[in-house]
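Re: that chain you flagged

S.,

Sorry for the slow reply, it's been a week of failed gels. I finally had a moment to sit down with the sequence you sent. For the record, here it is as I used it:
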Amino acid sequence: MYTYAFFKTPQTDLQFEQDGIAGQVEIIGTPTLSALVEPNLDLDEIQQNDHRLVQAVLTHDRIICDLFWTTAILPLRFGTWFVSPENLLEHLELHQDKYLAKLNQFEGKAEYRLMLMPIDNSQPQLESELRGKEYLLAKKQRYQQQLDQRTQQQQELKTVLNAIALAYPNHILKESQSEGEKLYLLVNREAEDTLYSRLEGWQNLCSSWELTLGEALPPYHFV
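Prediction finished late last night. Pasting the structure tokens below so you have them in one place:
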């Protein structure tokens, strides 16, 4: 039984009638926890075709995002599968306290991805007519400028990361990538305007970095 997400069992019927990866999705659950499932999906068959597999991953994310705008959810990874409805219900009952605590934490919140990209301030090539001591001096000056820029970038990065952590203690910083730094923030959706205002302030703290904020998404990295 293919499963998309867990969420609190609503007090009233949750109308969620959509096509899933290969058929209709439906809701099953206990009095306290429910799951969005696609009962008749043959994932092994889909994985034999690269095009169908890509479309399946995209559909998985679309279904989760649509549900996310309806209620707080625990999004599940693509390919999450339970052998039977009974097995799924047993799992929900076994982990009820942990899942409910997470759902309470995510109530009204969304995940935002914040990218910090270093601005490339490459130095121009040395003038070709330079010779001897003039060339060596120009090369030394260029190296020092590059070193100063890297030092400035690292100082600014430390400053802005401290400011972000102070404003949003509940965040995840991914390991440094060659393309920059990546953070995930768990933010109340009603306070999105405040987030964008803070983004402007953070940008002012680090002129040698470019900050880019993504849209509100389910709390993928906090589950």
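What I noticed first: The CA atoms of residues 82 and 88 lie 6 Å apart.

Talk soon,
D.
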